[in-house]
Amino acid sequence: MKILIADDSRVMRQIVTRTLRQAGFGDHDLVEAADGQEAVDKTVAEKPDLVISDWNMPELTGIEVLRKLRASGNEVKFGFVTSESTPEMQQAAEAAGAAFFIVKPFTAERFDEVFSPILG
């Protein structure tokens, strides 16, 4: 499976990648995007099976990326790994079709719990 990691922080993308490996998902093909527009473009071009997105990014926020993809008919599994978490944000994510919402800091155990049903 192919996983797109969208976060404007290169360090955070590396931490997500490392945590995916620690959780046992290291054999998947990983693609990175450094902002929201790149996340949309790479989701269309690379056709990942899963998008793991930050909430706050330049160009388009994570929720804007999700809404843009859904508006174009793209039903990729999409969720958030973010440091901000309010009930309103979680409701907006769920209403837009997000599959998960993980709050930073996260653990390999949390990734395993969330991604095992999605990635098998």
Oligomeric state of shown chains: single chain
What would the average pLDDT be, to the nearest integer?
A: 96
Can you name the CATH architecture? Answer: 3-Layer(aba) Sandwich
CATH superfamily: Response regulator
Beta strands, count: 5
**What is CATH's topology name?**
Rossmann fold
Question: Which class do the helix and strand fractions yield?
Answer: alpha/beta
Cα distance, first to last residue? 10 Å
N to C succession of SSEs: EHEHEHEHEH
Number of helices: 5
Our estimate of the beta-strand percent is 15-25%
Shape, please? globular
Number of domain modules: 1
Uncertain ranges: none
CATH class: Alpha Beta
Protein name: Two-component system chemotaxis response regulator CheY
Organism: Actinoplanes digitatis
Keywords: Phosphoprotein
InterPro entries: CheY-like_superfamily, Sig_transdc_resp-reg_receiver, ST_Response_Regulator
Primary descriptors:
Rossmann fold; five-stranded parallel beta sheet; 5 strands; 120 residues; globular
Please provide a written account of the structure.
Keywords: Phosphoprotein. Residues 2-119 form the Response regulatory domain. By secondary structure, the protein is an alpha/beta fold. It is built from five helices and five strands; from the N terminus they run βαβαβαβαβα. α1 (10-22) links the parallel β1 (2-6) and β2. It starts with a strand and ends with a helix. The mean pLDDT is 96.
